[in-house]
Fold Palmitoyltransferase.
Amino acid sequence: MMAIPGSRSSSTTSTNKGTCSVCIKAVKWVPVLFILSIVVWSYYAFVVQLCIITIESTIQKVIYLVVYHLLFFMFIWAYFQTIFTNIGQVPSQFKLPEGELERLTHAETEEMQNAILERFSQNLPNRNRTINGNVRYCEKCKHVKPDRSHHCSVCGECVLKMDHHCPWVNNCVCFTNYKFFILFLGYALLYCLFISMTSVQYFITFWRGHRHSTEPLGGLEGMGRFHILFLFFVAVMFAISLASLFFYHIYLVSVNRTTLEAFRSPVFYHGPDRDGFNLGRRKNFMQVFGENPKLWLVPVFTTSVDGVIYPVRAQPPSSSYHTMENSQTSLGDGTAFDKRPSTEDMEELLYEINYEDE
Ligand SMILES: [Zn+2]
Ligand SMILES: [Zn+2]
């Protein structure tokens, strides 16, 4: 059988690429494995070294173990939900059909491209614009971006209500798992605080024993005391960083803003508006956590919006940004929707640039 010239090198290249992408995928799991190994070690240090070996009172052992396992279970549940929840997909109605895509690719000027996108997005529920007031379009995914979505370079696709890409969960924090992420931060914080508070007295005992070597160590011997010493240290360090992140995200939920929107305000027809989606604390909270209080603290999906359509707040009448005439339709409950440019405006614009409608 004759060898095809170049076939070996091309197959070697594709094998290399395959191996490379597997390596990159594996490396992305390193932070998650790091967190999990600390959690497994903390389980051993708390349950075995502190509760079983060190603590003498049976009642104290039982109370500590019950509370610990409850927090441990909720924390791991929320963490795994954040990691393994699919980031979802941009609905197909946002994807440009072949014909439109062809026209867009061959459009000679930016105005023509904008007009094609304006026309296509007439029936889409979009209110967000680019900073220049144009339709938001993803060159890589070839679709119009739904409101609050952004292209994640790590995930390689547009992500609905993208908050940020988190290496510690190897996933995008977004519309589908934002509630899980906040619960994960909250339960992890409680887990660390509980460990810190229950191990602090043994930590102090260790230091006293260390300074006065003749003093008894209250049951802490050999490696056990180092496990408990580090358990306290690690729990306090994680509690500090988790607390700042947790309270920051609670603030973001209260003003209905993603981390990305906190850095760069979303742009509407009337201009950039960092409070554009802010409907008041109660509505903002319910948008993420749902309307059933029994499920607020449970890491199951209860978010009350569809990930594509987000109500916007009523705008002050003086605000103006875009040259196109702009007003709003109010729902009467403080929720309002921007009016998009009329079809007549668009047809006029398309006519001016010799748009051929087939
Ligand atoms: Zn994209
Ligand atoms: Zn991502």
